Amino acid sequence: MRPRQLFVFATSMLFAVVPLASQAGGTPHWVHYKWLMSNPTLPKKVVVLPIDIKVVEVTAGGVEEQVPDWSREASQSVFKAVSAAIAKQPGMKEITAPQFSGASAANFDEHLALYKLVVNTAAKIPWQHKARHFDYGIGSGLRTVAEQTSADAAIMVYGRDYASTAGRKARAVVGNIPIVNVFTGPAPQLGHSFIRVGVVDLRTGDLLWMNSEYREGGTNLRDPDDAAKMVSALFEWYPGIEKYRAAYLK
User: Fold this and answer.
1) Which residues pair with 30 in a beta bridge?
2) Of 18, 171, 189, 238, which sits most exposed with the smallest number of CB within 10 A?
3) Gap between the Cα atoms of 140 and 146, Å rounded
4) What DSSP designation does 14 have?
5) pLDDT at 155
6) Crossing angle, helix 224-235 and helix 68-87, to 10 degrees?
7) What is the CA radius of gyration of the chain?
8) pLDDT confidence of 24, banded at 50, 70, 90?
């Protein structure tokens, strides 16, 4: 598919997202096959591209509604957590990302949609041979970012945070009382959150590394501490090359 065709397909897939599960019998992260060669060159300068975290409020009846203000808060909290995680990585330095507007903003949106499609697709692949030779990418359309910043790679992040209304929480409490549960049905899920992080080669578009963290319950990505905990858990696997080799290249 051409990038434009992939973009259209990707946008149609975004509302049917499923959490990224750990790969069966291996690791939760993915590593590009180039990094599995001897002495790989890891990115030294990275830019964190605009982060897309959508906060969705779910009513007692299961109706979902995105909350823009909460989404901006969550995106900012996750951005700060990612910057802090980068600062802890030996040899990695964060470079300020360029401002996107007009055609450059449209180009970024297209590649963010492609990124979402790629990581969602990779999450559903059960074949061991793909884990051994992971070669996904989003094309070289972000090469200009490398030229503007001198960065080697981009950190791309998106996620969702499903929060319950007070009414839904009340229903969950009632639903957990056995006698009443006969009439109310099972207690509703109070919410869940997930974040997907990818390291993308800015010149080739190769997805060099990706990982995802999924949590149920009371995680609130607008809260800096909750965001930091999830992001830290993700980067504990970076770059994870030896663990990946041990799991898939036996």
Assistant:
1) 210
2) 18
3) 10
4) G
5) 98
6) 50
7) 19
8) low
